[in-house]
Structures are given as C-alpha cells and as structure tokens.
Design goal:
This protein has no helices and 11 strands. The chain is mostly beta strands. The radius of gyration is 22 Å and the shape is flat.
C-alpha cells in the first residue's frame, strides 16, 4: 500500500465550526451561557475570555490589533460546585450539587435547605445536566473608551477568544474552542447625559 506524502494536507485532525461574531449595542451588558460538550465537569478548570481592541475603521472588518489598545478580561461565571447533595444542608441560590443515583447535577433556584432530593423538588432545584456550562458576562463598559467610536450605520470591532485549561495535576491540556469578533453598534443613549 502506498503511503501519503509527508506534506499532504488531506486529513484535518482538528476542526472547528468557524469564528464567532458577537453583536452588541455599545453600553449593553449581556450574559451568554457556553456549553463545553466535551467536558463533564468544569470544577477546577480555568476559563479565560478576553477582548482586544482592533485597529478600527468604522464599518470595515479589522485586520490588525490596535497597538496600545484596550485589553479586557471578561468574567466567566461557573456556579459554585458543592459536591454531593446532602439532605437538610442549607444551600445558596445558584449552588450546584451532584446527585449520585441520578448521576446528574442540579442548581439551587432559591436559598435554603431541603429534605427532598433535587430530582423530586423542581420548585427549589433545576436540572443542570452536567457541570459543563459557564456564563460569559460582557460588561456595559466594553468598547466605550475605544480609540474609534461606531457611527450610526458603521460598527467597530474587537477580537475575542475563549480558553479552557485543565486543573493542575492532570495532563494540563488547554483548549481554545471559541474565537472571533465582537461588533459594537452605535448607541444614541451614550450621547445623552
């Protein structure tokens, strides 16, 4: 059997769905859930999301990073994971627990204790599936102090990337599953004092 040439590029061992494009009106603060479908438990992992100001010409896609431009770290919120659910323990809102018989994770809807297992108490717990969801928070201050401002029909952009790194002690692999652009649209409310 003939072997492939060493410089052949017919097989791509790593692939993605392409770059993302987030679109915000300047001054919006929004949050989005990102599910890491290849991970069962984010506990102990590091999630880093960043935005880097591009060299903007309003209405045109950027091709370069702005030298000396803004660099922002975005908040990646992961609910506090408290391990196995314990009957009668008091939990805070958003606490995440695992229930062994179900082999599922549940998130607390309200603060307080309870004696019913989360799977039997949907008014106080919601099925979280796996512990593989992080919430990215895009602050309302993102881009408001960029060197170039958007115009009514001409947005500006920054570069975005998300990285996930395993907890220390294992293989310490690091993935960059999402990257692309954030588009900022003109906002009249930012002009009015």
């Amino acid at each position: 059997m003939a072997r492939s040439r060493i410089s052949g590029r017919e097989i791509d061992l790593q692939a993605d769905n392409g770059a993302v494009l987030w679109s915000f009106i300047q001054g919006e603060q929004l949050a989005y859930n990102v599910t890491f479908d290849w991970i069962d438990n984010l506990h102990g992992m590091t999630i880093e999301a960043v935005a880097v100001e591009s060299a903007n010409t309003p209405g045109e896609y950027p091709t370069e990073v702005l030298v000396g431009g803004k660099q922002d770290k975005l908040t990646a919120y992961i609910p506090p994971y408290l391990g196995e659910w314990v009957s009668g323990q008091v939990y805070a809102k958003n606490d995440l627990v695992r229930v062994t018989p179900d082999d599922k994770y549940y998130q607390r809807r309200v603060a307080g204790g309870g004696v019913l297992p989360p799977s039997s108490d949907p008014s106080n717990w919601k099925d979280y599936g796996y512990n593989n969801v992080a919430t990215l928070i895009f602050p309302d201050t993102l881009s408001v102090d960029y060197a170039v401002k958007p115009l009514p029909d001409k947005p500006i952009y920054c570069y975005f990337e998300l990285a996930v790194t395993e907890a220390p002690g294992g293989m310490n692999r690091s993935w960059k599953p999402m990257r692309g652009l954030i588009e900022f649209l003109f906002s009249p409310t930012l002009l009015v004092p």
